[in-house]
Amino acid sequence: MTISPCSAELPGTLGEAMPFLCEGAVITLQSTLGGSLLAIAIALLVGLMAMSGHAWVRGVARVYMEFFRGTSVLVQLFWIFYAMPILTGFQLDKSFAGILALGLNLGAYGSEVVRGAVQSVPQGQREAAIALNFSPYHRMRYVILPQAFVGMIPPMNNLLIELLKATSLLSVITVADLTYQGRLLVNSGSDQLIVFALLLLIYFLFSYLITLIMRFVEGRAARMVGRGGPGSGRRKDRRWSRRPVSPAETPSVEGAR
Amino acid sequence: MIWDWDWTLEILPELLTQGLLVTLQATLGGAVLAFVLGLFVALLRRSRNPFVSRPVGAVMEFVRSTPLLVQLFVVYYVLPDFGVKMTALMTGIIGLGVHYASYTSEVYRAGIDGVPKGQWEAAIALNLPRRWTWISVVLPQAVRRSLPALGNYLIAIFKESPQLSIITVVDVVGFARELGSERFRYLEPMTIAGLFFLLVAIPASIFVRRLERRLGN
Predict the structure, then answer these.
(1) ipTM for this prediction
(2) Among residues 172-201 of chain B, which lie with CB inside 8 Å of chain A?
(3) What pLDDT digit, counting tens, does each position of B101-110 carry?
(4) For residue A186, what are the contacts with CB-CB under 8 A and spacing of at least 6?
(5) CATH label of the domain that carries residue B200
(6) Which residue in A82, A94, A218, B199 has a CA-CA distance of 20 to 30 Å to A8?
(7) What does the pLDDT read at residue A85?
(8) A 52-71 residues with CB below 8 A of B?
């Protein structure tokens, strides 16, 4: 008979903690998913805006990026949840405020990734698309972005893991995520060593899950633009071990410029 | 007027003296620990003995994949059970230092990998002992290459230091939270704290970008 990892029938502290931690894990996954969708949307929009021909569009993108990369997520979270309501008279729901703060923050880092990847597509591709009379939109949509996409994935993987880690901060504004549930268990007398070890382990598994998903996506994306057939894609996957991208800058992409 | 200027002027000096001092201590302490520990980790990971390099690599991968906040809780709540007692600030510095050592070790690793092979060969040709090859040939070049990236991590540590306020360290953000909860009004203290981080982080990142360009050639 197999017992679900969330079962209360597990022995000792495990049975006490796991049902609660599983509830929290669901909230953590939801926040990560919501935050990453928002972050990716912002990253694409702002990343493309940062390369616009209009100086004022570039300026808006620049200000956004510097602003959200210049302060910490925690301050942004507090500001959106506690300070903004006083200024605007509009109180956001706590999970929504959390997802918004995460999305805005990681979106700013992501837009740097998008910009770097788009600029590292060889100039000849752009020129060829112009020669074939592609409109600027079609040039971006069918020629540049699909190729840039492959290069975006390894740094995006790092950012998504940063986002997963940052969801733990939502516990501070009482969103009942994994970290919050863990602290609740500790406060109600569970063995703290075991509870914190479980927390770390679950976060680690989620990080690993993100890496697996992103490797799969990268393999697909690489084959779609004809880089590496079956097999060669997999060899390449194994080679990119997860290198941390500096949260302040993205050196690997900066270097490509 | 929604913004309370009188209160702003009243809390501004306190916030930027008391709070600032703690933020600086946490940032510099955490950074020094991260830079030193990261270098040792990078060297251990290059060890020829797989029983050294593999476990060190696995532990660092684990540290990098889990949230700083939970690690801080472990240091703050669990270590005292084993008889290790520290102040909250000290706990925070160790947490930041170990967490970011997992990042800086990768920076050093890239720096060491970037030292041209000819340098190693020259050291062998000169019959330099292996230890001196590291100390006087490889590391000075590797560390120099790593400086801009380390600068970025210094800024990152500075920006992550507010997380220490959750384990009761009274840094700029912790102080702002205290002030805010007194009146249940977070607008002014949080905005000042946010602006303060912007004011430091943006010039610092411009400086690091310059450094990158200068050392780049």
Answers:
(1) 0.90
(2) 173, 176-177, 180, 185-187, 190-191, 193-194, 197-198, 201
(3) 999 999 999 9
(4) A192, A195, A196, B77
(5) 1.10.3720.10
(6) A94
(7) 85
(8) 66-67, 69-71
